[in-house]
Specification:
25% strand; disordered C terminus; single chain; 76 residues; alpha+beta
């Protein structure tokens, strides 16, 4: 068990410039603000989301939804 309070997770590998080992599916942090910042600055497959979970309670405290693709239409 990790002693960290927050887990950054995704169903697919997470990439980001500031991650210690890019390509993992979860990272652990002691600080909530750092975990949320890392999640916001990271990315994964377009169809997947990134979550920050409070480990002791299982509560999702931050969620970065998959990128929404702009659809083209004839309407202005």
């Amino acid at each position: 068990m990790h002693s960290a309070e927050f887990r950054l997770e995704s169903n697919h590998p997470i990439a980001g410039r500031f991650l210690p080992r890019p390509g993992a599916q979860e990272y652990f942090f002691r600080d909530r603000a750092l975990a949320v910042t890392m999640a916001a600055k990271s990315f994964t497959r377009p169809s997947s989301e990134i979550r920050v979970v409070h480990v002791p309670t299982g509560e999702v405290v931050f969620r970065k939804s998959p990128a929404q693709r702009a659809e083209f239409s004839d309407e202005p």
